[in-house]
Write a structure and sequence with these properties.
This protein is mainly alpha-helical and about 375 residues long. The chain contains 10 helices and 6 strands, in the order αααββααααααββαββ. Helix content is about 65%, strand content about 5%.
């Protein structure tokens, strides 16, 4: 199964060969893990990669239900979905983005940004729908106080744990993709900061058993980021669609305000009034004032940093707009005024008559 068109062949085990064929190599590794399910001797090991671990079966009036904790074996499952994310990335790039790029004929810098927005647009759309589905089915939206009540929120249901494992796997896969996509050194700091913030917040929500609050915050963040990347895609297709950025700007500020309010409400007030205060690693309880302050400061610092970068971006955009307007005014002022010369005389039967009544001499047209 080939994901890329081979425009040039490279020597085996060379750097370019690995970059060009990394999706095919990963696909072969995933197939080997799936083949392990077919044999009794390797099936148990293969299940470690595919299914979430640390499950306990509980018997309810509705039937049996599997609930999950977290542990070090989750790293094995994350590795498998890390490989799936690389294949998913290659499929979207080959069968969607590359076909659009060949029609748009973008420059190299715009082509890189278009690919980045295209990949993240698909991921944010899938994650937004997925997180909204989990929020509705788990009843977190209907009962808003459940975001902080009955803390710690363990054990987890299957869909909640799978969502967090896939989120960690996706953002981890973006690190080697920087190498595979040959991202420029100037873009590396921005990309690494962006990825590190996602990994930090998702890991904190997962390990500190703040999965309910984390789900809501991720849904809001992904929805806002989806608007930005959709706006950028439309801008690259047609530069007249820049007004979509204004709509995104409003949603961006609204998301920051809601995120700060919800975090302070759930962590600062909700958990602070809970009865089970203290640190209990076995029960998964991290409800101490030090941890609450750490979570609040982390979220507030991140939102403040995002707002600062947003304000700088808007100010730079406003200065560029003012500079373009002033340049157009100076150019219009330098253009000479064109005076229209009127013909002397009057028209009669479609022919110009001079003031003395004589018709002007007709010019002879020279032959080419």
């Amino acid at each position: 199964m080939a994901f890329r068109r081979r425009s040039k062949s490279y020597p085996f085990f060379s750097q370019e060969f690995f970059i060009q064929n990394h999706a095919d190599l990963v696909f072969c590794l995933v197939v080997l893990i799936l083949i392990g399910l077919m044999f009794e001797a390797t099936a148990k090991t293969a299940f470690l990669f595919i299914l979430p671990q640390y499950n306990n079966t509980t018997f309810l009036p509705e039937g049996e239900e599997s609930l999950y904790h977290y542990g070090w074996r989750d790293c094995i499952t994350i590795f498998f979905y890390f490989l799936i994310a690389i294949i998913f990335h290659a499929v979207v790039q080959e069968y969607v983005l590359d076909k659009v790029n060949r029609r748009l004929h973008l420059s190299k810098s715009k082509n890189t940004k278009f690919n980045e927005s295209g990949q993240l647009c698909v991921f944010h759309l899938v994650s937004s729908v997925w997180s909204l589905y989990v929020l509705i089915t788990e009843g977190y939206i209907q009962n808003f106080s459940s975001l902080w009540e009955n803390y710690p929120h363990v054990p987890l249901r299957f869909q909640v744990k799978l969502f967090y494992l896939f989120q960690l796997a996706y953002w981890l896969h973006t690190l080697p993709e920087l190498y595979f996509q040959k991202v420029r050194k100037e873009e590396m700091p921005r990309q690494l900061a962006y990825i590190s913030l996602y990994l930090l917040h998702i890991t904190l929500a997962y390990l500190l058993n703040l999965t309910r609050v984390g789900l809501v915050l991720l849904f809001l963040q992904y929805l806002s980021e989806l608007g930005f990347h959709v706006s950028r895609l439309f801008y690259f297709i047609d530069e007249n669609h820049h007004k979509l950025f204004d709509v995104w700007a409003v949603s961006f500020v609204f998301t920051r305000m809601v995120t700060l309010t919800l975090t302070v409400l759930a962590v600062g007030f909700g958990l602070a009034r809970a009865e089970n205060q203290g640190l209990d690693l076995e029960a998964g309880n991290f409800n101490t004032i030090l941890i609450r302050l750490t979570v609040l400061l982390t979220v507030c610092f991140t939102q403040a940093w995002l707002l600062w970068k947003f304000i700088r971006f808007q100010l730079r955009r406003w200065r560029e707009y003012r500079r373009e307007q002033s340049a157009r005014k100076r150019l219009a002022a330098k253009l000479p005024l064109r005076t229209l010369k009127r013909d002397v005389g009057h028209h009669e039967n479609g022919v110009i008559k001079a003031e003395n009544g004589a018709s002007p001499r007709t010019k002879k047209i020279k032959a080419p």
